[in-house]
Automatic annotation (TrEMBL):
Highest taxon in the source lineage: Bacteria
Annotated 7,8-dihydro-6-hydroxymethylpterin-pyrophosphokinase domain residues: 90-101
Cited PANTHER family: 2-AMINO-4-HYDROXY-6-HYDROXYMETHYLDIHYDROPTERIDINE PYROPHOSPHOKINASE
Pfam family, one: HPPK
EC id: 2.7.6.3
Keyword Transferase included in the entry's annotation: yes
Pathway(s) served: Cofactor biosynthesis; tetrahydrofolate biosynthesis; 2-amino-4-hydroxy-6-hydroxymethyl-7,8-dihydropteridine diphosphate from 7,8-dihydroneopterin triphosphate: step 4/4
Gene: folK
Molecular function as annotated in GO: 2-amino-4-hydroxy-6-hydroxymethyldihydropteridine diphosphokinase activity; ATP binding; kinase activity
Family stated for the protein in its record: Belongs to the HPPK family.
GO BP terms, alphabetized: folic acid biosynthetic process; tetrahydrofolate biosynthetic process
Name by which UniProt lists this protein: 2-amino-4-hydroxy-6-hydroxymethyldihydropteridine pyrophosphokinase
Keywords, alphabetical: ATP-binding, Folate biosynthesis, Kinase, Nucleotide-binding, Transferase
Length: 161
């Protein structure tokens, strides 16, 4: 059985855009994962710790036969393959960040995974690229992506050519 999952991508260290392209290719090459759609890239201001370079963010939709935690494990392995070290710093600089934003219409909240992503409704850097590929998707308990985006200020997030 396949599920459509939504994944947010970002980074702000090194040559980010080619790394995001390569990460999307790597995710699409995983057994049981097929990329269905990808957003534009956006330059976005940092969140939390603002004393760092701007981020480049994107989103993809994938069709997957992996269970949610299996997809999460594959995403974390992909981050590591691209030089990401999870050192416990929240909102710090990173080579690659992959977030499982939604997994079909599942609601999961356990020690390892929360979907839909818990802060998605307040983050323009997530909602803008997500709206490129899934504007009409209803996130369980939150609402339609386009409506969530309309409710926040996204002026500082700039689409890249």
């Amino acid at each position: 059985m396949s599920v459509t999952a939504l994944i947010g991508l970002g980074g702000n260290l090194g040559d980010v855009r080619p790394r995001l392209d390569a990460a999307i290719d790597a995710l699409g090459a995983l057994p049981g994962v097929r990329v269905l759609a990808r957003s534009r890239f956006y330059r976005t201001p940092p969140w939390g710790n603002v004393d760092q370079p701007d981020f480049v963010n994107a989103a993809i939709a994938v069709e997957t036969s992996l269970p949610a935690h299996g997809l999460l494990d594959a995403m974390l392995a992909t981050e590591r393959a691209f030089g990401r070290l999870r050192d416990g710093e929240r909102w710090g600089p990173r080579t690659l960040d992959l977030d499982l934003l939604a997994y079909g219409d599942a609601v999961i909240d356990d020690a390892r995974l929360t979907v839909p992503h818990p802060r998605i409704a307040e983050r323009a850097f997530v909602l803008l690229p997500l709206a490129d590929i899934a504007a009409d998707t209803v996130l369980p308990g939150l609402g339609r992506v386009a409506d969530l985006l309309a409710a926040i200020d996204a002026a500082e997030c700039i689409p890249l050519a």
